[in-house]
Amino acid sequence: MDDELQRTIGNLIRLGHVKSVEGARAVVTTGEEDTPPLLWLSLAGAYALFRTPSVNEQCVILCPEGDIEGGIVLAGLFSDTFPAPADGDHLHLKLADDGSVDYDPAGKLLLLTLANSILRIVVKQMKIVGPVKIEGDVEVTGKITATGKIKSDEEVEAAGVKLTTHVHPYPGLPGKTQKPEVLP
Description:
Blueprint: H1 3-12, E1 13-22, E2 25-30, E3 33-34, E4 38-40, E5 58-62, E6 72-77, E7 92-96, E8 99-104, E9 109-114, E10 157-158, E11 161-162
């Protein structure tokens, strides 16, 4: 094999580490040289997934005809700097600096964790089917309609009137009603 062909084959695929990212291009250190800004692969199309490569993330550069100027960066190789966050083939995980989305099909559990972030869902309409448990305070802006029983272990108050202690006058008679009776 001649030297030129061997050099071309050797330059088709290179390993490196992301040095910097700007927009949809990344500069990669490969060996002792830095590439020009190269496009990095994500998912484009009607359903797009945008994940910016991290600085120092290990990657592969595909160089058509061995030309680094036309190279494409394939980021996402685990390394000592960015080790695999989980082991096993049962877990689907999306991980960020302050949260994660974990799905364990064997345990039938989807867990969204946002340590110090806010989750905002914007939809035209939402329907949840199944029992719902909320731990923490709930604030609702808008009307609440219920078709089933509403139960509370604490006092219920509406427009300043407390359910368990309110009294009201008898129509046309002196005095007031007694407090509501607590049923067993």
